[in-house]
């Protein structure tokens, strides 16, 4: 059986020009999301600047929007990798995550990095989902 790779573009999330990367790719029931930061759709402004909590909320909303565009949802997220500049921000990230996820939370890896794309970006989150897996 051959599965078709499909790219999904959310109207709410800026997509970089072709040749860079895709935000959301689905193959069968598996959905891969690129790492998201809290950059606004102008690709310059940082939303929630200075607050890991506010930046995390922006990112989780982007993840939600991309998944919904691909026919899925947050309940289907099975794995997340979170990159942080300051490990002390983890409690604020978890607080934001609890506002978006319920039930069995996704598997998660937290990695501290020395920096991200811009100095005022505090975190980046990458996710993997299995469409339909979160339904009871």
* CATH classification class: Alpha Beta
Spatial separation of the terminal alpha carbons: 27 Å
Structural class, by secondary structure, is alpha+beta
Measured by DSSP, the beta-strand proportion falls in: 25-35%
Q: CATH superfamily membership, which one?
A: RutC-like
Secondary-structure element sequence?
Answer: EEEHEHEE
Which strand order spans the largest sheet, edge to edge or round the barrel? 1-2-3-6-4-5
Shape: globular
In angstroms, what is the radius of gyration? 14 Å
The domain count comes to 1
Architecture, CATH level 2?
A: 2-Layer Sandwich
Question: What fold name goes in the CATH topology slot?
Answer: 60s Ribosomal Protein L30, Chain: A
Give a quick summary of the entry:
By secondary structure, the protein is of the alpha+beta class.
Structure description:
- α1 runs parallel beside α2.
- The mean pLDDT is 94.
- The chain is α+β, with helices and mostly antiparallel strands.
- It has a six-stranded mixed sheet, with helices on one face.
- The chain is built from two helices and six strands, in the order βββαβαββ.
- Helix content is 21%, strand content 26%.
- The chain has a single domain, classed as 60s Ribosomal Protein L30, Chain: A (2-Layer Sandwich).
- It starts with a strand and ends in a 6-residue tail after the last strand.
């Amino acid at each position: 059986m051959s599965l078709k790779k499909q790219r999904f573009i959310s109207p709410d999330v800026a997509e970089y020009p072709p040749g860079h990367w895709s935000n959301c790719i689905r193959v069968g029931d598996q959905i891969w999301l690129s790492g998201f930061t809290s950059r606004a759709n102008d690709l310059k402004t940082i939303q929630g600047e200075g607050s890991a909590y506010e930046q995390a909320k922006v990112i989780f909303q982007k993840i939600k929007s991309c998944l919904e565009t691909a026919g899925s949802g947050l309940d289907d997220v099975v794995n997340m990798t979170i990159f942080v500049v300051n490990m002390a921000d983890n409690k604020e990230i978890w607080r934001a995550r609890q506002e978006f996820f319920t039930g069995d939370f996704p598997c998660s890896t937290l990695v501290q990095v020395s920096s991200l794309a811009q100095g005022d970006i505090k975190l980046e989150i990458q996710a993997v989902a299995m469409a339909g897996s979160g339904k009871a």
